[in-house]
Amino acid sequence: MHMKDNHLLKTIGPLAAHLVTTLYSRSRPIFHFQEAEEIMGGRAPTSKVLSQLINNGVVTRLKPGTFCLVPFELGFEREYLGNPYIVARELVLGRQKSIKEGYYLSYGSAFNLHQMVTQPQFIVYISSPRMMRSRTIQGTEFRFVRCKVDDLFGITEIWIDKNEKVHVSDLERTLLDGLKQPAYCGGFSEVAKGFSIRREAIDPQKLIDYAIKLGVGAVNRRLGYLMELYNIGSRIHWEFLQTTLTPTYQLLDPELPAEGHHIAKWRIRLNIPHEELLAIRGT
What we know:
Number of strands: 12
Strand content: 15-25%
Largest sheet: 4 strands, mixed
Order of helices and strands: HHEHHEEHEHEEEEEHHHHHEEEH
Helix content: 40-55%
């Protein structure tokens, strides 16, 4: 620690300093009350020390029972959030660190992590089988999307900084989730841009395998249409997807009005101008 850090620790007292330094040594800038209680050796002293640290701007309360250490270099910043993706992980898992892939960063957040966004992202999306209400913390909205346990696949772990890792949908799963609920990614056009931006990195067989596992007919239609339009995969992939389609038609963009012509090959109603999609392909 720097001299300035040591001075700050002296001003908050030995008990509080012990808690702060221990949390830093464990790489736990975002922590839960139970962790602090284990370090302090009791509920009463923990509550007292945390109240002191919050009042001094050394710790911020993210939600009841979950806290964040404010970096010393920021001084006494009472509105500090920390890395929103790490906060998201802690909100959904709590102390249940033994749960393997019990959540994943999804939709617009996953698009951002896979470098497919063309618009600023103001919402953190987290998919989990747990029922959790969305909340806004320090001006950032955390939106929890409930998914089935069987849909916890296509998830990878990435380093979000030098000490912390988070679960996020892999590239192919991210794109399929976007086709399922494009509104969570900024709209269907933004999802199409993701396909175009990362088309060289996409594994077409993995896309199809995941789509079959998801079992959502509208996703298969939208996927087949975009794969053919953007020349992702081969005719074998496209023809296989066609065999999975039922006679009913689905909107290409579920958020837009039911208009536009029907494309029988993909059982899609093209309610986005074809020229717009071609322009995206050319970017």
